[in-house]
Design goal:
Blueprint: E1 9-18, E2 30-36, H1 42-50, E3 68-75, E4 81-85, H2 96-112, E5 116-124, H3 131-142, E6 147-152, H4 159-172, E7 180-181, H5 190-198
Parallel strand pairs: 2-4, 2-5, 5-6, 6-7
Antiparallel strand pairs: 1-3, 3-4
């Protein structure tokens, strides 16, 4: 897939922010979930995918988003689908009760949402994959979710060291396909990410 063949987003609409499963969209459309720690670059990835700078909702305090935000997306090449932006984790200074509420919401969505076809897990390439993220990936597999791992902010790492990211990742998760190396500022990995999304719509 060349840059010219990347799906052209013609419409992108914020549908709602859901704080419970009762608020999840009722439209029978494929959903692509975007997950990752706070400050991993989720908003930048979504803005690039949607080709919209102002549509993505961003909390004023990193890590404080409590909702799953749903964005209906229409392209010239694909059937309409929905991006589900999951709350970030691992950063916010909030009480344990609130963290538990977020965890319950995410767990309910990821374990029982019939329209969910792909989970895009974002990992900061400068920090690498953590034990929590490894456990999360294995759990997603147990839930029979399709997963693609995306290492963000690779423009912050010298090109001659990027290969080490793939080597270290596959040592820890030899059963998983290699991650996509991604940079929202350089468009690195955009074609590969769209290809993964396209394969599940």
């Amino acid at each position: 897939m060349t840059l010219s063949k990347i799906p052209q987003v013609t419409e992108a609409e914020f549908l709602l922010g859901a704080r419970s499963s009762k608020q999840f969209p009722q439209e029978a459309l494929t959903e692509i979930a975007i997950a990752g720690k706070s400050n991993v670059g989720k908003s930048s990835v979504l803005k690039l995918l949607l080709n919209r700078r102002k549509l993505v909702r961003i909390s004023q305090t990193p890590g404080r988003t409590r909702e799953i935000n749903f964005f209906k997306t229409v392209t010239k090449q694909l059937a309409p689908f929905i991006f589900a932006d999951l709350p970030g984790y691992g950063y916010a200074k909030v009480n344990s009760k609130l963290q538990d509420e977020w965890g319950e919401l995410i767990t309910e969505y990821l374990s029982g949402r019939e329209y969910l076809k792909l989970v895009v897990l974002l990992i900061d390439s400068r920090r690498g994959i953590s034990g929590y993220e490894i456990d999360f990936l294995l759990w997603l597999q147990q839930m029979n979710n399709n997963v693609v791992v995306v290492y963000t902010k690779v423009d912050k790492i010298p090109k001659n060291k990027r290969g080490n990211l793939l080597v270290q990742y596959q040592k820890k998760l030899p059963q998983m396909p290699p991650p996509i190396l991604f940079s929202a500022t350089k468009n690195t990995g955009l074609q590969e990410l769209w290809k993964s999304i396209q394969n599940h719509i």
